[in-house]
Design goal:
Strand order of the largest sheet: 1-2
Oligomer: single chain
Distance between the termini: 29 Å
Order of helices and strands: HHEEHEEHHHHHHHHHHHHHHHH
Largest sheet: 2 strands, parallel
Strand content: under 5%
Number of helices: 19
Structural class: mainly alpha
Length: 383
Amino acid sequence: MLKNFFKKINSPWAVFILTAIFYGFFISLQLINNNYDFSRFVVAGDKFSDVKEVFPNLTVEKNSWGYDGQFYYRLALNPFTKNQTEYGVRLDLPALRQQRIAYPLVVWLLSFSQPALVPIFLLIVNYLALCTIGWLAGKVLQLFNVNALWGIFLSFYPGFLFTLSRDLTEILAVFFLLASLFFYKTNKYFFLSLALIFTVLTRETNFIFLIALFVASLYLYWSKKERNYKLVLYSSIAPVLVFLFWHFYLHSVWGTWPLFIDSHFNTYLIPLYGLISSLLIIKTINSFYWLEIGFLATLILISVYSLKFSKVDLVIKISWFFYFILFLSFSKNIWVEDWTFLRVVADLYLFSLLIILPTKRKINNLIYFYALFLWLRIFLRLT
């Protein structure tokens, strides 16, 4: 029945509208629960945000560390700050937070840095990016002769509910990744370069896609299967230079390299060491945690199975492999709670679905229903 329904609708706009409706409903419920206080999505805590110094429109939770959204809120007020504490908010790891400048920068531009508007636009930017992910997913899937409506499985990734709830960066990161892939597939090299710049400035791990693009282009050149490899490589020059410049700048300001202060990766070269060690230290693990781990395991197994059947571009397969290696290297800090690990594997989920969807095999239905089940379960949990 689901298959027949999909056949009748083959439009990226259908995915856009469905995404807009369901996530709009989710945001509405959250706003009602928060008395229409947009700053609640920031999740500011008094350990980093001084209630006496912050702007009056920011709600600060007492006896709380808050969450990462408070740092993006702070940077959206002044993206190029050189002060660790400003507007009453202290950046915990300034270089690490500021390297992910794209999200707060976009909000800063749209809100004209007005404190009253910043919490609103932090939410609006993520919401619009989510809707556009649905549209882009439909467009990209059509390029692989897949019905556009299947794109809802990309925009309805369960981890996006966490990101949307706390003004975080993963939604915008996936948006720019998908935009980069779309421009790559449609040979729009200027826009590819522009999207790649924002991609690497949204989350540093997105540099992986840039490496995959480079590796795929060289292989296709050597195998004489790609005539436009030079244009692709030229499109990568500006993003690499911008990425390096921004990191050198941050080092000059904060005295440390952003890439070397993240505690989210193992110091041991043992695959899944972080997951195994976290399971040993977590005192109580509920059944839903295991369902989420099972979801990731199912996703990876079906992706591996689909790799030999899928006819998607080489760059997608290489990207999946690199993001899978990254997945294996996550430290126990990532695996302690689903608020973290379901967000940071969004890139792996994106490339997994792009590999799985074009194969059109019955086993794929397992991951589709699994994803929708988790999305609904988390939706109910957060509302």
